């Protein structure tokens, strides 16, 4: 598919691309290139011109920073090989340096070019930026103006910054296109900021400039009574039927009333904190506006947000008995098909512009479309004998398939209900006429047909592969075989041809009713089309069920006279079909509308509700497009103000509704200079700063009250109420046992360090591998419980650092599904990536662990708010409480609050987590692990455990985390006094003094934990302790035993006996303690103590 080219915006005589082309590599890498030119963007402006100009240099700096970042990480940039280069017919130096490139689609490259991409054309795959400028290498910056996909290659039209030398020797070497940045959005913003203000609609923008705190109040000329009378009682009832709360309903009614105001332009703010149903509110508002046929554009900063609100409206429309699918033609979603990932959203196919254009192009194809199908069906029913005669004369015409199973499958949903009648044909026909007005049956037919349409997308691709073999035909039970095939008899021909045409007509009817704007296809026409489908389907059943001759089929009785049995039934049905078919229109809009491009413009021009990103709304600035009356911007607080100027200047725009929450994350800004200048600030946030009135949605339906408590108090001044659903007992769900895993808890990880790691884009980020291990363990246990209880659970893992996100994703691997439709799925994303999302359980990994309380951008209040408000039932925060408390940020308040509420827990309260933490500490080679292993692993243990250095070296060599956990678990059991039952015989032969004390317990099939009982003096006591020596294979234990002989040679017999002494309590062995008398030799004292003891092997 060919991507459309957009004119490059200019300022004066210079476009943004020209400016970028003027930068050398040195300029690009100079982070201070525009530092002195970027000024603080004010909150108020004296004029529209000054407003627009205030964004120019911050935009240039942001573009520069993005390119600088890409250049710095060029070693990991996506690349593809260029097959050929030639000058374009538009090539006119020195400025219009247009070239045509060919790129192999199947060359294994990592990059598929898109329109708007800025690329480096070079003869080397760069491993660093110096490779681009190191002789004899060369590179040129180029902009991709157009991409056209062909069978085996992509054809690109590019604009180069410098002439490309097309010498024969140079073209012998491979050329590469290295992706840098996509300039589309930057260029569109540039165009909006530098447009001719006299030719644009700036009424809304001028309204945004008013610093008056009364802005946003109702129009002084429109009384409240007039406004609500405009809404109308019927529409008001429809709105109330959706079950909105008071704040949501009031927001919808005010926006609809605003639509009726023609005295002034209006900007309304709807404040939608997390979980307050802003998407539902927008969906109901759009549903009402759709019914009012108000031409409305809904945009958002991201494709994801656009898709979410589109799905919400479609759900309301499809559930509406009044609409069914008729009216979807008034809704259009448009944008980049790849970035929107439309192929993953089949429910949006029927409103997506590209798909709609393809469908309508087929419907209006002159030789194969609706008109041809309608005429053919009429002529076929009028004179089937003549059609049969043409069939016999045409040797090249292939017969229609007549598979009985397929015939049964063709009996649509409408007839399924009819076939349940008593079998009398007249009753059957009467029932069909009655049911044709039944909305439920109608919608079932629609759903079935739409499903078939979606399946055709794949079928069409497969059919292309079979096309070369189609001339061999289909045997069809021996009816025909190429030139020697048996020709169908008249009855077979009529039956098969009728079925084929009827199916085509059904597809056309469904597609026309779905995709045509209601202005061009009335409800009366739709009803007639459905009536025609009913009659045709009934006629098809009669043809299949009645044994008739050729003469009986062509019976042209039109006076309704009585025939014989089912023959008169067929005649009556045929005449009824002809009557309805002749009433249907052949054309629906002017015949000069043909081709996908023209149809796209037609759809955009006639839709009532449109959806796209703010950037893509530039398409509605095309000349001749029907003006937009109302603009709704969802996630408005996340949209840069300069980007919002693209839709705000649309012709005819009178009113704007901004829906968002300035307490959540703003737009992402890559340049620190531009960020400091408030380049990422939204119109929503600026108006809030100017005390513009905003309507609060004040009931949250997402979070358990224990989760919403802190963010509501900290970020929303206790203005948000908990919905009745989250207060119910069933909303308190327990996914894991233990206090750590309540609805809300902070799990303190006192151990582990943050570390710097390279991100996927070559930039540094932070990670904490101990937290990675803890999160992985919690997810594993959730999965185990989910499977055991057959409980559906969705898990979200959030971290502010990309390196941590990657580390967790790698740790989890492919063990768990990432499909939201599965019974257990896990989504791991950054805080920014989770904005707008929600899951049953959210686990936050905060990463930071240091002594000075440094937490960087983790202290950002908006980022914290987003992270804390994604969970429905359980929110578990994993982090180092000391670091976060010492930060002095909002995290300090959170830690204090968690402790006060009894929600602060040490991770080692959970024995499994303690094992995981120890194993992770060994993995990261944290040497001070030995200082606090007692507190982690042996808290409350009966035995003191000592380790030889060889044990830790062996632990470091074990890379499998599960084996490490087995070792630690075994140590925990030993420290409690557990011992394996004594077994006769030994798989290995040992001798020497150490064999009297040496024990080895199996860890797994290969490894064994080797330990002894030893005597340790502490203060004035001598106590028995466990001494762990190593983790070894059986074959290596004799060697260790020989080394230990030297260690135990210094022990007297009495001391050896004390080491062997066992005090048993129940099933456990407990250590003995002896008090040493002062000024007495410990060994002599122990000998005297030993003489009074009775040694028995209690095992």
UniProtKB/TrEMBL annotation:
Residues 680-881 form the DNA2/NAM7 helicase-like C-terminal domain. GO terms for molecular function: ATP binding; helicase activity; hydrolase activity. Pfam families: AAA_11, AAA_12, DUF6469. InterPro entries: DNA2/NAM7-like, DNA2/NAM7-like_C, DNA2/NAM7_AAA_11, DUF6469, P-loop_NTPase, SF1_C_Upf1. Residues 244-468, 596-672 form the DNA2/NAM7 helicase helicase domain. Residues 108-194 form the DUF6469 domain. Keywords: ATP-binding, Helicase, Hydrolase, Nucleotide-binding. One of its GO terms (cellular component) is chromosome. This is DNA2/NAM7 helicase-like C-terminal domain-containing protein. It comes from Camellia sinensis (Tea plant).
């Amino acid at each position: 598919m060919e991507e459309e080219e957009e004119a490059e915006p200019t300022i004066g005589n210079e476009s943004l691309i020209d400016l970028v082309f003027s930068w050398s590599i040195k300029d690009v890498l100079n982070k201070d290139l525009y530092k002195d030119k970027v000024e603080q963007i004010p909150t108020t402006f004296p004029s529209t011109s000054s407003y627009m100009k205030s964004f120019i240099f911050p935009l240039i700096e942001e573009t520069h920073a993005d390119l600088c970042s890409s250049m710095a990480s060029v070693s990991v940039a996506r690349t593809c090989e260029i097959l050929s280069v030639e000058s374009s017919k538009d090539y006119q130096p020195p400025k219009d340096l247009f070239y045509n490139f060919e790129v192999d689609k199947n060359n294994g490259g990592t990059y598929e070019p898109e329109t708007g991409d800025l690329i480096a054309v070079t003869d080397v795959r760069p491993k660093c930026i110096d490779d681009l400028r190191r002789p004899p290498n060369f590179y040129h910056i180029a902009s991709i103006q157009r991409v056209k996909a062909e069978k085996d290659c992509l054809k690109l039209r590019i604009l180069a910054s410098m002439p490309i030398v097309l010498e024969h020797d140079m073209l012998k070497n491979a050329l590469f296109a290295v992706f840098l940045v996509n300039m589309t959005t930057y260029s569109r913003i540039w165009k909006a900021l530098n447009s001719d203000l006299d030719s644009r609609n700036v009424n809304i923008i001028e309204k945004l400039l008013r610093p008056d705190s009364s802005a946003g109040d109702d129009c002084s000329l429109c009384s409240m009574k007039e406004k609500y009378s405009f809404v109308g009682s019927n529409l008001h009832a429809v709105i109330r039927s959706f079950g909105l709360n008071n704040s949501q309903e009031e927001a919808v009614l005010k926006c609809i009333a605003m639509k009726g105001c023609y005295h002034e332009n209006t900007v309304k703010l709807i404040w939608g904190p997390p979980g307050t149903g802003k998407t539902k509110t927008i969906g109901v508002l759009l549903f009402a506006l759709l019914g009012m046929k108000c031409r409305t554009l809904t945009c958002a900063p991201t494709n994801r947000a656009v898709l979410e609100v589109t799905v919400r409206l479609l759900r309301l429309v499809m559930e509406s008995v009044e609409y069914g699918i008729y009216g979807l033609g008034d809704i259009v979603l448009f944008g980049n098909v790849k970035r929107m990932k439309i192929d993953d959203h089949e429910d949006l196919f029927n409103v997506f512009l590209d798909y709609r254009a393809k469908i309508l192009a087929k419907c209006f194809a002159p030789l194969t479309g609706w008109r041809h199908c309608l005429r053919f069906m009429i002529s076929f029913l009028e004179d089937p004998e003549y059609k049969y005669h043409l069939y016999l004369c045409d040797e090249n015409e292939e017969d229609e398939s007549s598979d009985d199973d397929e015939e049964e499958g063709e009996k649509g949903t409408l007839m399924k209900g009819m076939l349940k009648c008593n079998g009398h044909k007249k009753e059957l026909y009467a029932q069909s006429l009655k049911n044709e007005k039944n909305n439920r049956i109608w919608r079932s037919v629609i759903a079935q047909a739409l499903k078939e349409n979606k399946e055709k997308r794949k079928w069409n691709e497969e059919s292309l592969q079979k096309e070369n073999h189609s001339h061999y035909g289909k045997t069809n039970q021996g009816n025909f075989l190429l030139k020697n095939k048996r020709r169908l008899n008249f009855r077979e021909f009529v039956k098969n041809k009728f079925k084929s045409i009827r199916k085509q007509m059904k597809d056309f009817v469904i597609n026309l009713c779905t995709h045509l704007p209601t202005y061009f296809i009335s409800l009366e026409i739709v009803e007639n089309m459905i009536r025609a489908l009913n009659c045709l389907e009934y006629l098809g059943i009669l043809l299949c069920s009645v044994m008739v001759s050729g003469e009986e089929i062509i019976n042209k009785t039109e006076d309704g006279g009585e025939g014989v049995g089912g023959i008169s039934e067929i005649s009556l049905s045929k005449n009824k079909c002809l009557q309805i078919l002749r009433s249907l229109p052949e054309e629906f809009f002017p015949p000069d509308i043909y081709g996908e491009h023209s149809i796209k413009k037609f759809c955009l021009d006639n839709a009532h509700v449109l959806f796209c990103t703010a950037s893509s709304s530039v398409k509605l600035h095309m000349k001749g497009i029907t003006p937009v009356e109302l603009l709704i911007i969802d996630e408005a607080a996340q949209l840069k103000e300069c980007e919002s100027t693209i839709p705000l200047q649309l012709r005819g725009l009178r009113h704007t509704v901004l829906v968002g929450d300035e307490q959540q994350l703003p737009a992402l800004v890559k340049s620190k200079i531009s960020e400091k200048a408030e380049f990422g600030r939204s119109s929503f946030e600026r108006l809030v700063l100017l005390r513009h009135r905003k309507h609060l949605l004040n009931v949250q339906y997402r979070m358990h009250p224990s989760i919403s408590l802190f963010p509501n108090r900290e970020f929303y001044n206790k203005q948000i109420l908990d919905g009745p659903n989250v207060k119910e007992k069933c909303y308190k769900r327990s996914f894991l046992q233990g206090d750590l895993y309540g609805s809300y808890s902070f799990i303190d990880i006192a151990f582990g360090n943050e570390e710097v790691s390279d991100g996927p884009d070559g930039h540094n980020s932070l990670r904490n591998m101990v937290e990675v291990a803890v999160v992985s363990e919690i997810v594993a246990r959730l999965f185990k419980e989910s499977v055991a209880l057959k409980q559906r659970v969705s898990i979200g893992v959030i971290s502010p650092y990309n390196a941590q996100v990657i580390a967790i994703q790698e740790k989890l691997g492919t063990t768990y599904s990432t499909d939201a439709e599965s019974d257990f799925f896990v989504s791991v994303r950054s805080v920014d990536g989770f904005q707008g999302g929600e899951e049953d359980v959210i686990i936050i990994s905060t990463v930071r662990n240091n002594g000075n309380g440094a937490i960087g951008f983790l202290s950002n209040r908006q980022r914290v708010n987003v992270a804390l408000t994604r969970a429905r039932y359980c929110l578990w925060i994993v982090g180092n409480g000391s670091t976060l408390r010492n930060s002095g940020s909002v995290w300090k308040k959170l830690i204090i609050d968690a402790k006060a509420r009894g929600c602060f827990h040490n991770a080692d309260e959970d024995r499994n987590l303690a094992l995981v933490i120890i194993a992770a500490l060994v993995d990261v080679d944290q040497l001070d692990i030995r200082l606090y292993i007692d507190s982690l692993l042996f808290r409350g243990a009966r035995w003191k455990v000592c380790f030889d250095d060889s044990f830790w070296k062996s632990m470091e060599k074990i890379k499998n985390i599960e084996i490490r956990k087995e070792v630690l678990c075994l140590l925990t059991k030993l420290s409690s006094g557990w011992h394996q039952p004594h077994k006769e015989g030994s798989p290995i032969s040992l001798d020497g003094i150490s064999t009297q004390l040496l024990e080895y317990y199996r860890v797994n099939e290969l490894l064994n934990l080797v330990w002894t009982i030893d005597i340790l003096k502490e203060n004035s006591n001598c106590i028995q302790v466990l001494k762990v020596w190593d983790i070894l294979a059986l074959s290596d234990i004799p060697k260790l035993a020989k080394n230990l002989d030297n260690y135990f040679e210094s022990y007297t017999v009495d001391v050896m006996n004390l080491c062997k002494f066992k005090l048993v309590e129940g099933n456990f062995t407990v250590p003995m303690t002896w008090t040493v008398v002062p000024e007495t030799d410990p060994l002599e004292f122990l000998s005297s103590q030993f003489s009074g003891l009775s040694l028995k092997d209690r095992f």
